[in-house]
Structure formats: C-alpha cells, structure tokens
Amino acid sequence: MKFEKYHGIGNDYLVYDCQKNTEELDADKIRKICDRNFGVGSDGILAGPYIEDGEFAVRVFNPDGSEAKRAGNGIRIFAKYLKDAGYTLSERLTIRTKGGKVQVRFLNADGTRIQADMGKLSFSSKDAGLAGEAREALREKMVFGQKEYDCSCASMGNTHCVIPMAEISREKVCTIGAFSERSAYFGDRVNTQIMKVLDKNNIQIEIFERGVGYTLASGTSSCAAAGVAYKLGMIDSDVMVHMPGGKLWIQIDEDWHVMMTGSVQSVCRVEMTEDFLRFEP
Ligand SMILES: N[C@@H](CCC[C@H](N)C(=O)O)C(=O)O
After folding, report:
1. CB 73 within 8 A of CB 44
2. DSSP secondary structure string, 54-69?
3. Keyword set for this entry (predicted)?
4. Of all protein residues, whose CA lies closest to atom 8 belonging to ligand 1?
5. Rounded to whole angstroms, how far apart are CA atoms 81 and 17?
6. What is the largest CA-CA distance in the chain?
7. Of 74, 117, 125, 148, which has the fewest Cβ atoms less than 10 A away?
8. Which residues line ligand 1 (CB under 6 A)?
9. pLDDT > 70: what percent of the chain?
10. With contact defined as beta carbons under 8 Å apart, do 252 and 227 qualify?
C-alpha cells in the first residue's frame, strides 16, 4: 500500500490512490495507518480518484475508521495531488465528495495555493444533524459535561457546532469536544469549534474534529465558524480564520456561498511494509 502525505496548514492527510493501489482500505487498516505512534500518523485518509460522470470524486476517512462527508483542507490537498500525479492540467476542476461538489481553482503554478468554492452553508437543524422541529440552529443552549454553552450549528457538507467565547485554548476545546462530539443532540456526531472574534475581519478558532480529536486546522470548521459569526452579526462577510496551524481566508456571499482560500504542501511518499500490515497488536 502506497500513500502520499500532504498537509493543509498542519491538518495532515494521506492520499491513497485507488487507481494505483489494489488493496482495499478498511476501518482496521485506516486506524492502524493513521496512528501517530504505531503507524504513519495523519488526521485522515483521502481515497480516490473515483470517476463519477466524468468528474473526480474522493472519499474522506477519519483516523477512527469512520467516513466523513467533507474535508476542506482535504479537498485542497486532493486537488494538489490530482495535479502532482498528472490527473489534471486544468486550472479549475470539480471534485465530488459525499457532502456535495466542490469547485477548486489553482492560484499558482505549483498548486500550493488553492481557492475552493465550498457551496452553500446551511444553518438548518436537519442539515446539522439535530433532532426536533426544523429550525435555524442558532444560539441554542447545549450542555456538554454538565456545563451549558451557547451553540450555533451549521452544515458545510459535514456538521459543525460553533461556540463563541472571550478566550479560547486547546485545553478548552478538548474538554468540550470530549462530550460534544458524541452528544445525543447530534444524530451522527459533530465537529466542534470554539471561536474568538478578534475584529470584524479576523476570527480565531480551536477545533475538535469528529472522528479525529484535536487538530491544528480544519477547512470546513473555518467555513462554519466564519458563517456563524457573520450570521450572528459579529463580523463582515470577508474574514481571515486564524488557527494554530495557520490561516484560511473565507468569503461569504449574500446567498451563503462560501469561498475558502489557503495553502497546501506535499510532505513525503510512503509504502507500508508487509510486516506492518500483518502485525496484530
Ligand atoms: N479536517 C477537515 C474535516 C474532516 C472531516 C471531519 N473530521 C468530519 O468527520 O466531518 C477539514 O479540513 O474540513
């Protein structure tokens, strides 16, 4: 099994080219390979390219073996992989995910800076995976680990719970995420962001991802946090999202279409040994 490792501002993924590899990926292998001590280590695996009606498609797997509908950094990484591996020579392409289509545009020749049209952000409770009557899931009181939080939920193809706060930290988001990710409010788990508004055009977030845990950056989380902050009147529609791994530029139009711009970097090529694949802990 061969992989190519990339990262988008510290959110690292292994690309598994299903056109070049023959072995099936399953949840056990995904968990082993993504393990940071016993495997290669990554925030997930991007499997593809699959071809659907002449368009590229990718599947996103979390390190716990679950499948995600979308990954914003993952989309930019996969686009760069398609360019690096010679699958495309175009400046623009469409990539299908389980959470909808994304249009990407390479902003420079080596494909390290990419803009992605992430589609429409939704605040519908149904899209965010919440139970109860259909509503816009904004400023709802939710209890995680016996503490009440002011939560606004959104879907950017995958589900997010955004909690504005005066001060944020890794420790705080991990404490909340340990309860929020699997809380009964959400039908199929959730990505959690705590968010500090720096000014009208800058926000800072810490992230606890569904199926992953703490990550240094997340593309869909940036879109959701910026969308919630804009919807609540805290910021303008053009915003830089600051994360421990780096920054993403998010632009939201009047129709809630979200553009995400940021960098990606290739890291290495790896081939799993027979020993590793055979080893049973
Ligand atoms: N890191 C990603 C989000 C990956 C998917 C998430 N863990 C989920 O299960 O929804 C990003 O950059 O968006």
Report:
1. no
2. TEEEEEEE-TTSPEES
3. Amino-acid biosynthesis, Cytoplasm, Isomerase, Lysine biosynthesis
4. 68
5. 9
6. 55
7. 148
8. 11, 43, 60, 62, 68, 71-74, 158, 191, 209-212, 215, 218-221
9. 99
10. yes
Asked if residue 122 lies in contact with residue 159, where contact means CB atoms within 8 angstroms, the answer is no
Residues annotated within a binding site for substrate: 11, 62, 72-73, 158, 191, 209-210, 219-220
Size (the chain), residues: 281
Q: pLDDT at position 281, please?
A: 62
Q: Are 256 and 227 in contact (CB under 8 A)?
A: yes
Name residues whose C-beta falls within 8 Å of residue 184's C-beta, 6 or more positions apart in sequence: none
What's the CA-to-centroid distance between 75 and ligand 1, angstroms?
Answer: 10
Q: Which residues of 62-95 are buried (b: 16+ CB within 10 A; e: fewer)?
A: bbebbebbbbbbbbbbbbbbbbeeebbeeeebeb
**Amino acid found at 68:** A
- Average pLDDT of 113-140? 96
CA distance 14 to 188: 24
From CA 87, how far away is CA 115, in angstroms rounded? 18
- Expressed in angstroms and rounded, the spacing between residue 275 Cα and the centre of ligand 1 is 30
Average pLDDT over residues 71-88: 98
